[in-house]
């Protein structure tokens, strides 16, 4: 009997914040007259948390409600779980035909294609048909059928997805193509949520969506939000990496988040689009970048590329840094990009 183990864990956690999960005010006003508020809602198959500082509960509630509404609309636009999402409808209609897209959908696809080109196709949102087979494999505890996988692979390739900026439209050059924004949408949604909070006058805020965290201005009297990142060897709070973040984002990708074990091999939810295979290497990639869209896509890309090529991609991205952990046998290999040490950490490492 094949052994199956399904683990879905939050890979990134707030250091001090998780302790108080209840919504609403979590502190009395600081000397600046600002109080801390925390809210949580489920979207995109994960829990979105918003922590913010505001003058009063009314401002906090109004801003966070608007931010969650924005996230919900993005979910309805971009979901590949809902056959009626704008993305899924567009995929059905765009085979060898131009289909006009909403500004958000066009923008995230443009960012995705940029990352696909930069990563040599390691990040590829057209991986949908293959992801679907591996999702089923996770549910059924059996590897995907080889023939079906071969057919699905024919439907994958970022070069078959074309975008026209002038028309704000997309076109798919092969039938059966299916786009999956799972590697970038949470970061994009967290960025969008921060923009909504700012439009409500709330710029001291942090948004966390599972493994993707976007930070705005730092809390009063501090130089950043403390964010704890779990690596492969982290067993508890003390062995996590503690970063201090402001006006930046951090994402973690890897098999610690979602995987299935079949016959002793561990299959990640991240696919190498060039082979159609789920990653089996134990690797955890944490990327800090200027925004959540970038950190989310970079972390997924570097998971596929591996330490050396992933580092190179990140070193060539302004404002980005990465910490990559990988198991070789039972040895833990850690590698850091050029600028990783410049990210403030507590305690200093
Ligand atoms: P993340 O947790 O951000 O690394 O994203 C993983 C999710 O992105 C998966 O669950 C798939 O939905 C999707 N995905 C898997 N492999 C890739 C890939 N190579 N490029 C882009 N998206 C991917
Ligand atoms: Mg990602």
Strand content: 25-35%
Attached small molecules: adenosine monophosphate, magnesium ion
Q: Which fold name corresponds to the CATH topology of the largest domain?
A: T-fold
What is the count of β-strands? 20
Distance between the termini: 44 Å
Number of domains: 2
- CATH class group of the largest domain: Alpha Beta
Structure explained in plain terms:
By secondary structure, the protein is α+β, with helices and mostly antiparallel strands. The chain has helices at 57-78, 86-93, 103-118, 128-140, 146-154, 185-199, 292-305, 307-315, and strands at residues 6-8, 12-14, 24-25, 35-43, 46-54, 99-100, 161-164, 169-172, 205-209, 212-215, 225-229, 241-245, 248-254, 258-262, 265-268, 271-272, 277-278, 283-289, 321-328, 331-336. The protein folds into two domains: 7-77 and 185-346, ApbE-like domains (T-fold), CATH 3.10.520.10; 86-172, Orthogonal Bundle (T-fold), CATH 1.10.3980. The chain contains eight helices and 20 strands. Strands 3-4-5-9-10-13-18-19-20 form a nine-stranded antiparallel beta sheet, covered by helices on one side. The chain has a three-stranded antiparallel beta sheet with strand order 1-14-15, with no helix packed on it. A three-stranded antiparallel beta sheet has the order 2-11-12, with no helix packed on it. A hairpin with a 2-residue loop joins strand 19 and strand 20. The longest helix is centred in the N-terminal third of the chain and has 22 residues, at 57-78. Residues 1-22 have low confidence and may be disordered. The protein binds adenosine monophosphate and magnesium ion. Adenosine monophosphate (AMP) is lined by residues 123-125, 127, 131, 180, 182-183, 211, 253, 257, 269-271, 273, 296, 299-300, 303-304.
